[in-house]
Amino acid sequence: MKFLLLALFAVAVYGQENYDGPEYAPFDAASIIPRTDFPGFWEGRDFPKWWYDPTVPISRNRRIVGGVEVVPNSHPYQVALHISFGTGTGLCGGSVLTTRSALTAAHCPINSASTLVIAGAHNRNVVEPNQQRRTVTSANYRIHASYNPSNLNNDIAILLTPTPASTMTGAVQLTRRPTGGQLTETFAGDTGRSTGWGRTTNTGAT
């Protein structure tokens, strides 16, 4: 799984505010690619070529790839975002914060029209019984005020809905957040886990 700081690729919530279409529209899963794979995405950004070009040999430790399939719905905070643009549909991930908000990356919804949010998914390419699907417009996103698209500093966005839009089930749960003494911990040296959908090799299929 290859993701740009997947911790920030975290989430969104589902609602239909300002959307007049169907709850969710059919899609061609084969046409959906990671947002960072869109033609021209990296143009004008201040990163060395090895950072984003899969044809340039680099050390494995510079990418998040080679993930393994998890037990279905074992990470119930995870959502898939199929984000519609004029040039195609991009894939991002996210994490449910509350029943009315979710966290994702700021670079994901910029210049988008709408987002199909899929919660409770294991295989995002099919409609599974546990899934909750909703479509929201780009107006529902709030981008970090100091987001810098040239270097992706403050690459954070929150998706908000005016009324509760999620239903908590075994497959859909809120992200666990630090409390008490954890708020001052740095977690230096700890092992973390990144979740989502992406590539299992640098050049493999999504």
Please provide a brief summary of the model:
By secondary structure, the protein is mainly β.
Tell me about this structure.
With 206 residues, the protein is mostly beta strands. Helices cover 0% and strands 22% of the residues. Strands 1, 2, 3, 4, 5, 6, 7 and 8 form an eight-stranded mixed sheet that branches. The chain is globular. The N and C termini lie close together (8 Å). The relative contact order is 0.28. The model is unreliable at 1-22 (pLDDT under 50).
* Overall pLDDT metric: 79
SS class: mainly beta
SSE order: EEEEEEEE
Provide the helix percentage: under 10%
Shape: globular
Poorly predicted residue ranges? 1-22
Strand composition percent: 15-25%
Gap from first CA to last CA: 8 Å
Keywords:
single chain; 206 residues; mainly beta; eight-stranded mixed beta sheet; 8 strands; 0% helix; disordered N terminus
Blueprint of the fold:
Blueprint: E1 32-34, E2 78-85, E3 88-98, E4 101-104, E5 114-119, E6 132-137, E7 141-143, E8 157-160
Parallel strand pairs: 1-3
Antiparallel strand pairs: 2-3, 2-5, 3-4, 4-8, 5-6, 7-8
